[in-house]
From TrEMBL:
Coiled-coil segments: none
Organism: Caenorhabditis angaria
Positions of the MSP domain: 1-115
Name by which UniProt lists this protein: MSP domain-containing protein
Length: 115
């Protein structure tokens, strides 16, 4: 596997006092992908959409919001899987595990809150 899904910019420098950071999630594959975003710190961070679908060679605008709080090493994990053209519900894709028990891939974005 190469880089199927990337983020631009690849890091998230938000101040510990709070703020927003906007990123482009880019599908580099020849397949439609469904994604799910998981956070290591749901108390301080949220995203504009947890589940979604990105078509071939398209992008999704991800907005990460941070509430004020003590800075620590956090991250977002974006899991993704290739899906068929008939799939319209990304949440349903992740509701049932793949037969192999693994996802097609994941991308991690480090959340580096600075004081």
């Amino acid at each position: 596997m190469g880089v199927e899904l990337s983020l631009d910019p690849p890091v998230c420098p938000i101040q510990a006092m709070g703020g927003k950071s906007t990123h482009k999630m880019i599908n580099h594959t020849d397949k439609i992908i469904a994604f799910k975003i998981k956070s290591s710190n749901n108390s301080n961070y949220s995203v504009n959409q947890i589940f979604g679908i990105i078509k071939v060679s398209e992008t999704f605008t991800l907005v990460i919001t941070r509430k004020p709080g003590k800075p620590q090493a956090d991250k977002l994990v974006i899991q993704y899987v290739a899906i068929g053209e008939d799939v319209t519900d990304a949440k349903a894709v992740f509701a049932t595990p793949n037969p192999t028990g693994v996802f097609d891939g994941e991308t991690i974005i480090k959340l580096s809150a600075a004081e």
